[in-house]
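Memo to structure team: turn this sequence into structure tokens by end of day. - J.P.
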Amino acid sequence: MSRDEGVTRGCLRKPEFQMAVRILLVDDHPIVRQRLRTLLESRFGWAVVGEASDGVEALDKVDTLQPDVVVLDVTMPRMNGLEACRLIQQKKQETSELEVLFVTQHDSPQMMREALDAGARGYIVKSNAARDLLEAVEAVSQHRVFTTLGRSPRASC
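Reply from structure team:
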């Protein structure tokens, strides 16, 4: 073993297999989409394939872009995220791998329950996105539930 191998082993190498994830961002605030895009694109192999500013636009882009994960806000004009999620679930029969992750300002157990009942696989709060977003997208892209409220993350299979 060379001197460099012993020092850098496991630190700089990329994983042998990194799952590619195609992501659609849906939020009515461009600055929020930009922040989320920056976080998501820091993960090797992940790509933000499109953005939408409301649920109506999101439904069109789900059809044309065929993302693996839709990162969706709850409160938006024209069509809110809960209704968009329900309609995405109806389309899911055509694209069975598609999952929805809510990233929202609503730090509410009731709202989280509504999102999961609408068919979402995950729910995180925007104020914790820097901490939770990558882990949440990874989980939902693997069809696992990921939810957080406040400061207590909960992930399950």
